[in-house]
Amino acid sequence: MKPLNRRQVIKTVMFGAAFSNVIGKAWAAPMRYEIRAQSSSQVGLLQVQLSDFPELNAARGSIRLATSPLESDPESDCTVERCDRPSGLFSPVLINRGDQNDFYTMTAECAHAGCTVRKMDPSTKIITCPCHGSRYAMDGKVVGGPAMQSLQVFKFRQSNGMLEIEMPDVFYNIEARRVATQPRVEISFIAFMSITYQIYYRESLDSSVPQLVTFATTPDGPADQTEIPGIDDYVSAYVDRAGKAGFFQVVMKTEAV
Question: Residues 70-83: pLDDT tens digits?
Fold first, then answer.
């Protein structure tokens, strides 16, 4: 396998993609907690259903969404509290709600030393970094050092109870092909360490509820797997084709942290 540098890895994020099982035809489709590719730019789209998070249905609510758990960094020079960093490649996304129906979306990676900032304190409307004490306003602007820059803010749209958050420099690199010996589709992609992947199927892009599907790890093996652990390398999943047409999605499992 050809090695990838960090820049290439970041540019091949697979938060989700849909593929027609008529090979050669690739689609991007919405799904909860999914970042999907946009063909005209190197920008992904993270979609968050507000009803799934009670914190965001109340004033001054705050959540962090991550694709991997947080862990303490033993090599950090923290001076305040435990320094949390993601165990995987990607920092959490921080979403804050104001006093009304106003939202603010940004990275949870501190601009000072890369630690993961806390969720916003509803009483003060301040975001604090536990490592060295940097402080940020609700909208991500720095209000206290040692950080000198604000948190990276993400553009978003709000529609029908959903936030659609633009993620710069994020797009897909997933390949799909027919399996010659079986009525299956091989889906190949880079599976990053400390991230778990699942595959979903939907009959059309208008389907409201994608269905989790099982898959095989070899072309002729039993389709009895539901999750793929990341290994920082290419992996392949073999899914049975369900009818003449349909769409498969590769999704990173996402959780609040």
Answer: 888 776 777 777 78
Tokens standing for residue 158: 């709000």
pLDDT at 242: 65
Residue 200 contacts residue 210 (beta carbons within 8 Å): yes
Residues in contact with 81: Cβ distance below 8 Å, sequence separation at least 6, in sequence order: 130, 131
Angle at CA 68, nearest 5°, toward 202 and 133?
135
Cβ-based neighbour number of residue 163 at 10 Å: 19
Residues contacting residue 160 through CB under 8 Å, at least 6 positions apart: none
Q: Is 19 exposed, middle or buried (0-12, 13-18, 19+ CB in 10 A)?
A: buried
Buried b (16+ CB within 10 A) or exposed e, 218-239: eeeeebebeebebeeeebbbbb
Task: Give Cα separations from 131 to 44, 79, 121, 142, 151 (angstroms).
Answer: 29, 6, 16, 15, 15
Cα distances (Å, whole numbers) of residue 65 to 51, 106, 112, 181, 222: 15, 11, 21, 40, 33
Q: What digits encode the pLDDT tens for the residues 141-187?
A: 999 989 999 999 999 999 888 898 887 765 556 777 888 888 888 88
Tokens of residue 188, six digits: 């190949």
The one-character DSSP state at 7 is H
